[in-house]
Specification:
single chain, mainly alpha, Four Helix Bundle (Hemerythrin (Met), subunit A), two-stranded antiparallel ribbon, two-stranded parallel ribbon, 15 helices, 8 strands, about 5% strand
Length: about 375
C-alpha cells in the first residue's frame, strides 16, 4: 500500500451550491458502491446465520460493547427543564472523544495507526451530537463511512462484508438504541411520519435485502405485530419495526406512515431497490444532513473520474464496471416522490382522510388497491 498523507477531515458542503460537487465526488461514488456491496452480501441471509468472524471483527465488537457498558455507568441528570435530551449524554460523549484514539488504536493494525487522524472524527460523530443531544441518519452515515475507510485501508476486506452488516453494524445499532432510550435523544432533523424512522435508515436497506426470496414473509407481513416479534431476530428490517412497535404508541399508519405505505410494495426486491433510491433522495441529497459530512484523503471530496453529467439534469451517472447493474444510480432529483417505482396517478396529489388522520400524498397502499388507477390520470397532452 502506498504511503498516504492523512489529514484531519473537514466539512466541505457549506451551502447548497456545494451539493453539486458532492454528487460528482469520489466520496459519493465510493460510499454508494460500498453500501451496495454490503447490501449484496446479505441478500437472503438471516441475522442469526453462522458466519466466521475474524479476531479483528471480534475486537471491534468488544470495543462497541465497552461503549455500551459506559451508558449504564452514567447516571441521569434532573429533567425538570428538559423535554428531550438528558444532559448526562454529554458525559458519555466527552468520555468517547477522550478515549476514541485509544479504543480505535487498540482495534486496528499498527501499520495504519497514522490514519487515526481521519478515522477518529467519523467514530466520535457516529453516536450523536452533544450540543443538541440528538441522533439521526447523518450520524449513522458516519459509522458506515468509518467502516468504508477501514475497508479502504485494508483493515477489513470484501470477505468481511457480511459480518460488517450482521455483526458489527448490528452491534452499533444496539449501542445507539441504548443511548436513544436512556438519554431520550432528540431525532436529528426528524420529519415525524414523513421520515421512514426517527433515527435509522441503513438497517431498512440491509434488512430488506435479507428478506429477498423469503417464502413466508412478504412486505405486508411487518404490519402484523406478532409476526414481527416472531421474526425480528432474522432481519434488521423487522428488528427495526419491532423497536418502533416497542417505543411508539397509536396506529401504525399514523406514527410510521412511510413504512405503512411501503408495505404495499409487492416484493422485497422492489422494497430494497426503492430503499436505495430513498436513501439518496432523503439522506445523501439533503443539505441539512450532508452539511455535517467531513472529507479527507480516504473519504475524498475530489471529483470522481467515473462520473459523467447527464444531459440537462445536472446529476451524475456512475460508471463502475465492477459493479452489477443494480448499483448504477438512477437519475433522480433530490427528494423526488415515487421512490418505489409505482405509477402514481394524479389523484395522489390530494390528501385523503383515514380515521380522522390525514395521510400524506402518494398513499401507496390506497393506490395499490385500486383496480384501474389510470382512470384518474389526465389525458395525454396533444402534440404542439
Amino acid at each position: 500500500m502506498t504511503e498516504t498523507a492523512y489529514v484531519v477531515p473537514e466539512k466541505m458542503i457549506k451551502n447548497v451550491f456545494d451539493l453539486n460537487p458532492w454528487y460528482f465526488s469520489k466520496a459519493y461514488e465510493e460510499y454508494l458502491n460500498f453500501l451496495h456491496r454490503l447490501n449484496d452480501s446479505v441478500v437472503g441471509v438471516h441475522t442469526t446465520a453462522d458466519m466466521r468472524c475474524s479476531e479483528l471483527v471480534i475486537d471491534f465488537i468488544d470495543m462497541l460493547d465497552s461503549l455500551e457498558k459506559w451508558i449504564d455507568e452514567i447516571p441521569l441528570e434532573e429533567v425538570s427543564e428538559q423535554r428531550f435530551g438528558n444532559k448526562a449524554f454529554r458525559h458519555f460523549y466527552e468520555r468517547l472523544c477522550k478515549e476514541a484514539p485509544r479504543l480505535l488504536g487498540h482495534v486496528i493494525p499498527t501499520k495504519v495507526h497514522d490514519a487515526l487522524v481521519e478515522l477518529v472524527p467519523y467514530f466520535t460523530e457516529s453516536f450523536g451530537n452533544a450540543t443538541r443531544i440528538d441522533y439521526g441518519s447523518g450520524h449513522e452515515a458516519n459509522f458506515l463511512i468509518l467502516l468504508f475507510c477501514l475497508q479502504k485501508l485494508g483493515v477489513f476486506n470484501e470477505c468481511d462484508n457480511q459480518v460488517l452488516v450482521l455483526r458489527v453494524f448490528n452491534k452499533y445499532l444496539r449501542v445507539c438504541r441504548h443511548l436513544q432510550t436512556k438519554f431520550k435523544m432528540e431525532p436529528a432533523g426528524s420529519r415525524g411520519v414523513h421520515a421512514i424512522d426517527d433515527f435509522q435508515f441503513a438497517p431498512f436497506i440491509f434488512g430488506s435485502a435479507q428478506l429477498i426470496g423469503s417464502k413466508s414473509l412478504v412486505p405486508d407481513s411487518y404490519l402484523k405485530r406478532t409476526v414481527v416479534e416472531t421474526h425480528a431476530h432474522t432481519s434488521l428490517f423487522l428488528d427495526c419495526v419491532n423497536f418502533i412497535n416497542q417505543t411508539k404508541t397509536g396506529p401504525f399508519h399514523e406514527h410510521s406512515n412511510q413504512l405503512w405505505n411501503i408495505s404495499a410494495v409487492p416484493h422485497w426486491k422492489k422494497v430494497n431497490s426503492g430503499m436505495f433510491k430513498m436513501y439518496e433522495g432523503e439522506v445523501l441529497k439533503k443539505f441539512p444532513v450532508v452539511q455535517h459530512m467531513m472529507f479527507g484523503s480516504l473519504f475524498s471530496f475530489e471529483r470522481s473520474e467515473n462520473v459523467k453529467e447527464t444531459s440537462g439534469e445536472g446529476h451524475p451517472t456512475l460508471h463502475d464496471p465492477s459493479m452489477p447493474p443494480p448499483c448504477q444510480m438512477p437519475t433522480r432529483a433530490p427528494a423526488q416522490h415515487g421512490m418505489f417505482a409505482f405509477q402514481i396517478p394524479s389523484v395522489a396529489n390530494t390528501s385523503t382522510v383515514h380515521s380522522a388522520a390525514v395521510v400524506e400524498s402518494g398513499d401507496l397502499r390506497t393506490l395499490h388497491s385500486q383496480k384501474h388507477p389510470e382512470e384518474h390520470c389526465p389525458p395525454p397532452m396533444s402534440e404542439p
